[in-house]
Design a protein that fits this description.
Helix content is 17%, strand content 32%. It contains one helix and eleven strands, in the order αβββββββββββ. A hairpin with a 2-residue loop joins strand 2 and strand 3. The N terminus is likely disordered.
C-alpha cells in the first residue's frame, strides 16, 4: 500500500512539473498572440537583397518564399557600390537565432548563420503558416513574401 501511495505522489509531482513546463513553453509560443489584431498581405513585387557569404544578390521572393535573383544584380561583392539598384530590404542579415523560414505555406524553425544561411533546428515542429500569429513576441519569418498590417477596426 505504501509503495502505491509513493508512486501516486511521485506521479502528481511529475505531472505538476510537466504542466509548469508546458505553461512556460506556451507563454513563449509565437503561435499564441492575438490572431485578430494583424492580417497578412502578400507582396511578391518588393525587391529584397540576399546575402550569401561575401556576395549579395538583389531579386524578389515568390509566393512560396523562394528567392529569384535579378540577373542585373546577381552575386556582387559584399558592400560593393551598385548603381541603379531599386530600394530593397536585406532579408537574411544579421545572424539570428530562433526564426522561421517560409516554405510553401509552412514555417520551418531554425537560425540564420553569419554567412546568411538558414540552418533548420532538428527535432522542432514545422508549423502551418495559418497557425502563425504575428505580434511583438512572435518569431521572425526572414523570407516572408509579404508583411503583416494592423487590421482596421470595422464599425
Amino acid at each position: 500500500m505504501r509503495g502505491t501511495q509513493l508512486l501516486f505522489a511521485a506521479g502528481i509531482v511529475i505531472g505538476a512539473c510537466s504542466g509548469i513546463q508546458f505553461l512556460k513553453l506556451s507563454a513563449q509560443n509565437p503561435l499564441t498572440t492575438d490572431p485578430g489584431e494583424y492580417e497578412y498581405v502578400a507582396e511578391t513585387s518588393r525587391w529584397v537583397m540576399l546575402v550569401q557569404g561575401e556576395t549579395e544578390s538583389i531579386g524578389k521572393l515568390d509566393a512560396t518564399g523562394n528567392f529569384t535573383p535579378d540577373k542585373r544584380w546577381f552575386q556582387f561583392r559584399k558592400g560593393q557600390s551598385l548603381s541603379s539598384v531599386p530600394p530593397n530590404r536585406v532579408i537574411n542579415e544579421p545572424a539570428q537565432k530562433g526564426i522561421f523560414e517560409f516554405r510553401s505555406g509552412r514555417l520551418i524553425p531554425g537560425d540564420l548563420d553569419k554567412d546568411g544561411n538558414f540552418v533548420p533546428t532538428v527535432g522542432r515542429r514545422v508549423v502551418d503558416f495559418k497557425e502563425y500569429r504575428y505580434g511583438p513576441k512572435a518569431l521572425n519569418i526572414y523570407n516572408l513574401p509579404g508583411r503583416f498590417v494592423k487590421k482596421e477596426k470595422k464599425d
